[in-house]
Amino acid sequence: MSSPDNPSGRAGASSLETFARDHLVRLGETSLRRHLIPTVRGPHSVAARHGRSLVSFSCNDYLGLSQDPRVIAAVQAATALYGTGAGASRLVTGSHPPLAALEERLAAHKGTEAALVFGSGYLANLGIVSGLAGPRDLILVDALGHSCLWAGARLSGAKVVRFAHNDLGDLEGQLAKYRSRHQHALILTERVFSMDGDRGPIADILCLAEAHDAWTLVDDAHGLGVIGKDARAPLEMGTLSKALGSYGGYLCASRAVVDLMTSRARSFVYTTGLPPASAAAALAALEIMEAEPDFAARPLALARRFTARLGLPEAQSPIVPILIGEAEAALALSAALEERGYLVVAIRPPTVPAGTARLRVAFSAAHTEAQVDALAEAVRALGFETLPPQRERVR
Ligand SMILES: Cc1ncc(COP(=O)(O)O)c(C=O)c1O
């Protein structure tokens, strides 16, 4: 007879079921199993979970724009005018007006000739990196680079070399060792590292890149709009899903590079275009971000208030890690904070290196100073010991 655990009704589990269950048991034993929790996000950084209202410090909606009435109105208007979906790949059905306007605005914001919007930031990195580099090329990736930078590098078939996190000496050494054996070289780094909140030394990397005829891609997923001016790379990619409160990814670059990606990035060519609503939301959010610079500076100021309160190194971005060590301990601290009304999710391997599970505290312009102070007090009262900052990710 069939049951939810054995839908086929056949005696004994299939090898697929056994594989999945055995893995789940192992993940559970090491506190690494993930669970989806029904959660309702609302304005003012509030998240309702387990029947309780929590102040969320886990969201990348750094400016609270996903809940902004002006952004919501733009989405409603675009949906009424253009419908809910793009219909097909953009090379088939074309670019609907909010997408074309968004690309123009993104390029102007970054000061590049052109921009190309992808289905997500993850898809953008897969397509850009594998569209630019191939088996005869070299890709150098920061050791703490996001999963999608590594995935794009591996997909390309290029020689992939890791350099120690933010370590210019190591990067230079790797370039000296490998560059001459490859046709092109591409350096992949981030403006703000997603799990550590520290910043890449972009200007110095650009100098090294120039000296070794290497191209640089900066992933600006967590920097856009919230950390002030920085040196610009020839390949600036990012996401529409964080400070812009929407969904989608982008590349800002020269006209030639954008045109090449339009024909060559497989995660652009062979996938459906972004819905009008997502493009309209990002466009409205970008306009607000540009028009209200004081508001855009707020998440970093709040993060610095928090690090000062707890005696942590001064925040370099709206992301503050509290490094705990073991996954179980990080989960326990997160649960204790939830008891006190705060959503601060524990980040565990393989998202971060083994032994460096942490609380990742993300600040938003929607938080109040009082909320930030109260969270700092709750963390202090619970007691915590931080590990030193990380240099390497075990992969
Ligand atoms: C550094 C970095 N790059 C890229 C991405 C992927 O962006 P998206 O969420 O739009 O796929 C993320 C998102 O988690 C990220 O943190």
How is this structure best described in words?
The structure is a single chain. Helices cover 42% and strands 17% of the residues. With 395 residues, the chain is of the alpha/beta class. It folds into two domains: 31-60 and 293-382, Alpha-Beta Complex (Aspartate Aminotransferase, domain 1); 68-290, Type I PLP-dependent aspartate aminotransferase-like (Major domain) (Aspartate Aminotransferase, domain 2, 3-Layer(aba) Sandwich). The strands form three sheets. Strands 4-10-9-8-7-5-6 form a seven-stranded mixed sheet, with helices on both faces. Strands 1-2-3-12 form a four-stranded mixed sheet. The protein has a three-stranded antiparallel sheet with strand order 11-14-13, covered by helices on one side. Helix 2 (69-82) runs antiparallel to helix 11, helix 4 packs parallel to helix 11 (276-291) and helix 12 runs parallel beside helix 14 (369-382). It is globular, with a radius of gyration of 22 Å. The two termini are 43 Å apart. Bound molecules: pyridoxal-5'-phosphate. Pyridoxal-5'-phosphate is lined by residues 120-122, 146, 148, 190, 194, 219, 221-222, 239, 241, 249.
Note the topology.
Layout: H1 15-29, E1 39-41, E2 46-49, E3 52-56, H2 69-82, H3 90-93, H4 97-110, E4 114-118, H5 121-132, E5 138-142, H6 147-156, E6 159-163, H7 168-178, E7 185-190, H8 202-211, E8 214-219, E9 235-239, E10 249-253, H9 255-264, H10 266-269, H11 276-291, H12 293-310, E11 319-325, H13 327-339, E12 342-343, E13 346-347, E14 357-362, H14 369-382
Parallel strand pairs: 3-12, 5-6, 5-7, 7-8, 8-9
Antiparallel strand pairs: 1-2, 2-3, 4-10, 9-10, 11-14, 13-14
Helix pairs in contact: 2-11, 4-11, 5-6, 12-14
Pyridoxal-5'-phosphate binds next to helix 5.
